Amino acid sequence: MTSSRRARLAASMLGGAALLALATLPVLAEDAAKPPAVVNGQPITEKDIAIASEDLASGLPQQMTPEQKRDYLTSYSVDMALVAAEAEKEKVVDQADLDQRLAYFRKKILMEQLLTKVGKDAVTDEAMRKLYDDTVKTIPPEQEAHARHILLETEDEAKKAYDRVKGGEDFSKVAKELSKDPGSSDGGDLGWFTKDRMVKEFADAAFALKPGEISQPVKSQFGWHVIKLEELRQKPVPSFEQVKPQIETYLQRKAQQDLILKLRGTAKIDKPEPPKPSEPAAPPAPAAPAPSDAPKP
User: For the chain, which domains are there?
Assistant: First the structure.
């Protein structure tokens, strides 16, 4: 086949492919515009499905696949349309009551949409960083201890444990063997803690030690402790990333609250004071007993 014939054949094939693509465009567009369902001639739209998804989000099982979820929401929307139409036919709802309910939910939706927007607009990188930096400056320095302990029921048991670890036995090993603390499988390790997180007797003894020192037996409401202080440090300030979710929530709620307070301050609101609770009535006086020597009829 000559090069000129190959070129003509290729052009012919391309032209056919282009015509086929053009011919299928209306069908594809029709499929894309086809609603999820039609109920008695009325379409259930994608927007209907989206609203149902938002409304039912908290009640849908987490294990649903996207296909199962869509099928459920479509069926729900179909059933709702059918039942609503039947309710209108049977006039089960008073129109004035329905209008009042619709007005209530219209205001509720508008309120939620505006508060969501205000909260979202308030969460900027600049606002979050500023709140974080300003808050960090106000955090007072606080000391943290990293300690281990052996918890025993009696003073005598605690003294024996103290003698063993002071005599050179490994503290973690003795804690695993003797301690009544359920967490002693980790060698009595309590991790890092501030003074206010422990009972007073324990905290006073732990923070009075120097790193590496072991305390005499200390009594608390939980029993007798032998404490080993591992380290002391200044409590680190949480990083921005650690507290970012809390910052976002705070900024959203503050912006929403500020808006409500502003609107209240500029509105004329007539709201009667609630009635004060009335004082309880005095109990009736007991009837006087009849005298024992009253004359008999």
Answer: 32-92 (1.10.8), 93-139+238-265 (no CATH), 145-234 (3.10.50.40)
